[in-house]
Fold this protein.
Amino acid sequence: GTVIGTSLISIGRDSIFLALVLTMIFSLILGMGIPTIPNYIITSSLAAPILLKLGVPLIVSHMFVFYFGIMADLTPPVALAAFAAAPMAKVSGMKIGVQAIRIALPGFVIPYMAVYDPNLMLQPVPGLDGAGYWVAVVYIVVKAALAMLLWGAAAIGYVYGPLSWWERLLAAIAAAFLVTAIPLTDQIGFLLAALAIGIHAYRVRVVERARQAA
């Protein structure tokens, strides 16, 4: 397992995004068969040095691994937490796992945001201190919360009321822009988010008024 993990993670040693994706995949797969703590110890020992070399702060890389070790408990096909809940809910464990991953889908994005903007984990950033640092922290927290709201809306299909397919698509695109750490993507993301929420709220209000009038 460690040999495969080393080979898998080493593929991304020249690309931070590829290294993160491969680390996530390995952590999820390993977490399907062993508890979170051993998963964290094994994966962090393999991935942390590579991520550190690529410029990811040490604490952020360790939390990235630990986070996905926990998420493995609700990721099908094993989904230990889902199958543990199945007897109580009297529903198939796989069905619970699919619904759990659907609801938790926005959570898969948070660790990536923390890597590209360590302010999200209250990590020091060169050139930022004092009031400027805390403004940056508040900004990334608000941006992350909005992105999670939009991802959740796109995955579940409901905010003030049921979302149409194009509203879900618009919400997903807005969230993707907010998550992407490239110049101007934040501005585009906030604009699309306001557009998606505004159009949806207006449409729901019109439908509700028509229903009351009838």
Remarks:
- The two ends are 64 Å apart (CA to CA).
